[in-house]
Design a protein that fits this description.
191 residues, 24% helix, alpha+beta, binds heme C, 6 strands, six-stranded antiparallel β-sheet
Length: 191
């Protein structure tokens, strides 16, 4: 079963089937052969610069601009909100998509709207970084904790860069199944 073979309607089923498989993001053998495919020092430094660029635009951090919370799908969380913007990171200027993932006791759209900080568990981001990964639409992927630190997968790999590239599961594999060929589920503006 490969998520990229699924049509849009098969996506939810595929997502459910892949639940609990996050530890397949990487295998030690692959890491030894190729060096870190993601989460290396360069990716981590870039992800910190990206966070700072977003924070300057009030897109992350305390009092961040948000959209109306909606009911989410696996793996992103019970309630989500997504914001599209453009930012400049170093000399790279491009679109960024920020998805906030909310969970916790009594989580609901209205509770999140009233008190987002209480439920925010992770901030997943795609930034179109020119020339970074032409094969996969140049997206730079990061999963941050609410304070801007970068989260790790169960194998201890930092989730920044070409996350889980070449693996059957993870950001890139799953998002390859998004309609429009742009790896974005919610729209096709960056085709
Ligand atoms: C198993 C499938 C799957 C995996 C793995 C996955 N996503 Fe997603 N992602 C989705 C789906 C489905 C949506 C649309 C959900 C929605 O907004 O309701 C989405 C939406 C997003 C969005 C908003 C843009 C869009 O595509 O609509 C961002 C940003 C994002 N994901 C980042 C990430 C990052 C970063 C990772 C890895 C750390 C990741 N995703 C892993 C399925 C996945």
């Amino acid at each position: 079963m490969k998520p990229l073979q699924l049509g849009a309607t098969g996506l939810i089923a595929g997502a459910l089937l892949t639940a609990g498989c996050a530890d397949l993001y990487s295998s030690p053998a692959a890491t030894r052969a190729m060096g870190p495919p993601f989460g290396g020092a360069d990716d981590v430094a870039y992800a910190h610069d990206l966070w700072n660029a977003m924070q300057r635009r009030h897109l992350v951090g305390p009092g961040a601009i948000m959209s109306a919370p909606y009911t989410g799908t696996h793996p992103h969380g019970a309630i989500l909100d997504t914001v599209d913007a453009r930012v400049q990171v170093r000399s790279d200027e491009g679109p960024v998509i920020i998805k906030r993932n909310y969970r916790g006791k009594d989580v609901s759209k209205s509770n999140v709207a009233n008190n987002p900080g209480k439920y925010l568990k992770a901030v997943t981001v795609m930034f179109k970084r020119p020339g970074y990964d032409p094969e996969d639409r140049d997206w730079f992927w990061v999963k941050y904790a609410p304070d801007g630190s970068i989260l790790k997968n169960p194998k201890g790999m930092t989730l920044a860069g070409r996350v889980a590239k070449g693996k059957p599961m993870g950001c890139i594999a799953c998002h390859k199944g998004a309609p429009g060929g742009d790896m974005v589920f919610n729209h096709d503006r960056y085709r």
